[in-house]
Amino acid sequence: MTDFATYPSLRGKAALVTGGAAGIGGEIVRQLVEQGAEVAFLDVDAGASAAAGARFIRCDVRDVSPLQAAVRQVATELGALDILVNNAARDDRIPFDELDVDRWDEQIDVNVRHHVFATQAAAPFMRRAGGGSIVNMGSISAHIDLRDLAGYVTAKAGIEGLTRTLARELGRDRIRVNCVIPGWIMTERQLRDWVTPEAERLIEASQALPEKLAPADVARLVLWLAADDSRLCTGQRWIVDGGWM
Question: pLDDT digit string (tens) for 117-139?
Fold first, then answer.
């Protein structure tokens, strides 16, 4: 079994993960806890409060005022906020001809808008601490040929631009902002809803590396970006896709 890195600089750091109940977010929460960080996560899943070693606040990230209140609550309860992982997302398939204004707004709200306003609420606490690390979760979907995902793909492409501008906005305060771009990650939801035999053939044909990607592969990159080891890395895209792009 491979031994992966331990990051002493993460011990005692205060971290918040949106969409942290399951999938990639759940794995990020678990690995931050294992590194000794003080971790809280937001999710709409009321059953997530049993997650070991992390605080849970039920929050719908589409609702900006409660979202920002939850960020401030976490920072107050933990005594600081050093790390923010903007992870919450939904890749609902919507045929383009069925896309209406309400469903478009829903896709933007759940997939990119909360990155802006969670960061806005977190930044004062990071300034007070002398710096911090923000990780925005993008997606390979903004770079490959997919259908029925117009809103999701648009939002995920926007996250890359948002990351660049926030890195400039916040860099003088020693707040780093990076974007992680996962490939097709084998979460429970993806395996249940979307990974068909045809999809498996596409993955095999598209990736340079033959192994299927797991949430832990993404979480380990997030750990490095959250830790002091990446202290001068900001405004960048970091791709975990098995060599697809």
Answer: 999 999 999 999 999 999 999 99
